[in-house]
UniProtKB/TrEMBL annotation:
InterPro entries: Cell_Proc_Reg/RNA_Proc (IPR050923), FHA_dom (IPR000253), SMAD_FHA_dom_sf (IPR008984). SUPFAM superfamilies: SMAD/FHA domain (SSF49879). SMART domains: FHA. Pfam families: FHA. It comes from Pseudoduganella albidiflava. This is FHA domain-containing protein. It comes from the Bacteria. PROSITE patterns: FHA_DOMAIN (PS50006). Residues 23-72 form the FHA domain.
Amino acid sequence: MAKILISREGVLEKTVQLTKERMTLGRHRHNDIVLEHQTVSGEHAAIITILDDSFLEDLYSTNGTFVNGHRVGKHFLQHGDSIKLAKYRIDFVADGIRPISGIPAMPAAIPPARIEVLNGSNAGRLLALDKPQTSLGRAGIQVVTINRTEAGYAALHADGDRVPLLNGAPLGKLPHALADGDVLDLSGTRMAFRLG
């Protein structure tokens, strides 16, 4: 089970196991993890954990949510990520993580995959899904991320007001497993997920 280490001004304040699928962080008492500082929004962020994967989502906080120095809306957490919420530093620790030197770039058991653009001026264009996370779309408008894990490939709506479609149905903010031939629709641009 993953956990987070919460520090303020270099002092470790608490360690929290991520025991629920969705855990909220913020200043208000109803949050799962309460961070008592006026620069933290009432409901600042949430960590969603599904199986072995955890995602950090900013809940439209005033001062933003940062991972490894970059402001994020939604972020796939990896062992060692450093999260900054106002005055707090939060280190993400994945359970059962292997030493860095022993982690292969990609799990060998997962077949290669790619995205094929089906329409428009880029029809026929292929994009290899050879990174742990690939983003599609335009920031602030509509972004889908495709995450590659030991369990396979999963897509989620990461950013923007426009909801992308997966096989004609709205794609949510939680990871959805992809199968060969699935079709993503981002604002009219259709793309097929291809395995192998």
